[in-house]
Amino acid sequence: MPSPTEQHWTPVHGEPYRPVPYRPARMARPESLARAAELRARMDERRTVRRFSPDAVPEQVVRDAVACAATAPSGAHQQPWTFVLVKDADVRRRIREAAEQEERISYDGRLGEEWLAALRPIGTDAVKTHLTDAPVLLVVFQQRYWLAEDGTKHKHYYVDESVGIAVGLLLSALHQSGLAALVHTPSPMRFLSEVLERPANEKAFAVIPVGYPADDCEVPDLVRKSLDQVLVEV
Ligand SMILES: Cc1cc2nc3c(=O)[nH]c(=O)nc-3n(C[C@H](O)[C@H](O)[C@H](O)COP(=O)(O)O)c2cc1C
C-alpha cells in the first residue's frame, strides 16, 4: 500500500501517439551567435557558493527556476522529479543537524583517502553552515517508480539522467536570475526523506541551498577545462 503522502499519477500523454505541429521560428544566424556568446560568458561566471547571506530571496524567482527545471527532457517523458522548497528555519536546522552527523562520519574516514584527497582543493569539511544560512533550500527527489490509480507500481526509466538534466536547468535558471546555489550531496541521504516526510517512491538526489553570496564569500580558485579539452569534433 502507498504511504499516506504517496501520490498517484496518470500520464496525460497516454496512448495513442498524438502528434501536434512544432514550427518554432528559426533564429537569424547573427542573433544566434550573439546569444550563444553572451550565454557562454554568463555561465562561466557561475560558481558554487558555500557561504550565504541570510538575506531573503524573491521566492517567485525560485519557483520560476523550478518551473524551468521541470521543462527538462526525461526518459519516456515520465518527469521523475519532486522539488521540495524548504523555507522553515526549524526544518533547515534539522536538515543541517542530520547532514552534519553523516558528514562527520564521512570526513572521519568513511569517504576513504582518495575521495578525501579529491575534496581537499575544494576546501569542504563536515560543517555545513549553508544549510541554515541560505534563506531557502531546494531538496530534489528522484521518483524511482510511479503509482497508478489502482495502486500498481510502474518503473521510471533513466531516472538518474533525467533528474541530473533537470538540476542542470535549475542551476542555470537560478544563476541567470541572479541567485547563487550549491549542489550538496550528503551521503547517505536517507534522512532527507524522513525529515521531509517524502513517500517511498522518492529518493533524495541533492540539497540545493539558494540565496545570495555572503559579503565575505570566497570560492576555491578552480580552473575549468578548456573547450579543446572537452569537445571532440569528428
Ligand atoms: C553531483 C554533484 C555533487 C556535489 N556535491 C557537493 C557536496 O556534497 N558538497 C559541496 O560542497 N559541493 C558539492 N558539489 C559542488 C562541486 O564541488 C562544484 O560544482 C565543483 O567544485 C566546481 O565548482 P563550481 O561549481 O564553482 O564551478 C557537487 C556538485 C555536483 C555536480
Task: Kindly describe this structure.
This protein has 234 residues and is of the alpha+beta class. The protein has one domain: NADH Oxidase (3-Layer(aba) Sandwich). The protein has 8 helices and 7 strands; from the N terminus they run H-E-H-E-H-H-H-E-E-E-H-E-H-E-H. The protein has helices at residues 29-44, 59-69, 89-110, 113-119, 130-133, 159-176, 190-195, 227-230; strands at 52-53, 81-86, 136-143, 145-147, 153-155, 180-181, 202-213. The longest helix is centred in the middle third of the chain and has 22 residues, at 89-110. It binds flavin mononucleotide. Residues 47-48, 50, 122, 124, 182-185, 219, 222 line the site of flavin mononucleotide (FMN). One of its GO terms (molecular function) is coenzyme F420-0:L-glutamate ligase activity. Its EC number is 6.3.2.31. InterPro entries: Nitroreductase, Nitroreductase-like, Nitroreductase/BluB.
Summarize the structure.
With 234 residues, the chain is α+β, with helices and mostly antiparallel strands. It has helices at 29-44, 59-69, 89-110, 113-119, 130-133, 159-176, 190-195, 227-230, and strands at 52-53, 81-86, 136-143, 145-147, 153-155, 180-181, 202-213.
Overall morphology: globular
Instruction: Estimate percent helicity.
Output: 25-40%
CATH superfamily: NADH Oxidase
Strand content: 15-25%
Q: Return the CATH architecture.
A: 3-Layer(aba) Sandwich
Q: Kindly report the average pLDDT value.
A: 95
User: Which stretches of 5+ consecutive residues score pLDDT under 50?
Assistant: none
Structural class: alpha+beta
CATH topology tier name: NADH Oxidase
Bound molecules: flavin mononucleotide
